Amino acid sequence: xxxxxxxxxxxxxxxxxxxxxxxxxxxxxxxxxxxxxxxxxxxxxxxxxxxxxxxxxxxxxxxxxxxxxxxxxxxxxxxxxxxxxxxxxxxxxxxxxxxxxxxxxxxxxxxxxxxxxxxxxxxxxxxxxxxxxxxxxxxxxxxxxxxxxxxxxxxxxxxxxxxxxxxxxxxxxxxxxxxxxxxxxxxxxxxxxxxxxxxxxxxxxxxxxxxxxxxxxxxxxxxxxxxxxxxxxxxxxxxxxxxxxxxxxxxxxx
Amino acid sequence: xxxxxxxxxxxxxxxxxxxxxxxxxxxxxxxxxxxxxxxxxxxxxxxxxxxxxxxxxxxxxxxxxxxxxxxxxxxxxxxxxxxxxxxxxxxxxxxxxxxxxxxxxxxxxxxxxxxxxxxxxxxxxxxxxxxxxxxxxxxxxxxxxxxxxxxxxxxxxxxxxxxxxxxxxxxxxxxxxxxxxxxxxxxxxxxxxxxxxxxxxxxxxxxxxxxxxxxxxxxxxxxxxxxxxxxxxxxxxxxxxxxxxxxxxxxxxxxxxxxxxxxxxxxxxxxxxxxxxxxxxxxxxxxxxxxxxxxxxxxxxxxxxxxxxxxxxxxxxxxxxxxxxxxxx
Lengths: 254, 329
Hints:
The structure holds 2 protein chains of 2 kinds. Chain A is of the alpha/beta class.
């Protein structure tokens, strides 16, 4: 099932998270192959978001290891894994509300300068990044809003802005937490297309509820239920798996 | 305070384009105002003006942390007051010149800020505020218990105004006022630059959404500590300047109510605006000065104004004007 280890960009072994007697994630072995779109699905409460937060270090695992590009990142800090090229998005749209759309993207580009402790420099030095920021803003269809504050954007556009910001880091691997959550149909199509476009030369792991999106985008799917891996494979395989069907129907999902 | 002509609002599409022209006009207006202020009747007492400017700089330093870093410190009196003691002590007992005393005071604010900040940034929100308050109370009790350094209940009185750089005598209040005005102006310009620097951009991002800043690879605690130290140093600069200008460093400067007062000034003037804390400090100090006849009632009047501010215009005086002009001030 798993290819040569060179192919695997992100791997977990026995990943477990206990919350005071409740095991949210239990013994999860996950292997994400380089260059693929890998989806993590499962009914509500399956532990997807917990799993996601463990991978991005926003939660500390109780047991188990996480390896990224052969490097053990189990004990790394969230800011450090971002510096290794593993960048996450958030379920609730995570923009900087009082910065403009352009500044939102630029703050990510600013990371290329290394640390920005230079309080004595004028922000004019950041103008050098404006061109690239504008290109990214245009790529997600927000060019006409680039001087607006992010707080003024509609929900779908905030998600698009968030993806542009993530892309600005040029991450080797992107972790998307329910990119379609709360979106209308048009937005879903636009963001799907965007994800497909940016997945070239990148690895994407996403948690997603919208099964049609998962079906059309993902190369590989891991199904979680009650904190455990229930099934893994492509959409055709997974969707026929009786355990998966039962888990979804059992949890009240048609 | 900054009563200058304001350029007409730019057309809608150019909105948000660049406010630096407006800000430059306001700074030039402020500089002109600082020059002529001592000649204006009623408010033109250099002694009163110096007090206003020192507190305005203090409030601006505080606002750098609260308004742009999103960090509410409830112990800023510690840096202000301790620096005042250091400046007063070195001027009086070591006979140092004002610029050296003020620099030492500023440095003491920075050191204190580094030590306290390193502890406080480990927690967030109300816990952060409580830690800063607790640490500041320690400075207060130290000041109370170390009369040899601080003069205890009496404070350090009759701080001499030695000759600036050892050559320029600070004879009267007016000369000293211009020294204070220069320090104030340079301090506010520095804060403006910090806000509008690459560092300031990261700071605003952390204020807006800390988790997202982390996920972009920013080590946010280092930025928080940096702004903490900058803010404490500038609060120290304000306190040290005050000690030389007003010729007094006392327990009032390190008392927790001073920390409260700077919060009040910042909120009344407009948190997260460049000019708000200056206006806020002018309003509060003027009230204390001109309503002094009311005695203890000044506190009540202040309280009422604070409540009205929070209820009616939460953005503060300058915040409301900025919103009205659709420009950040």
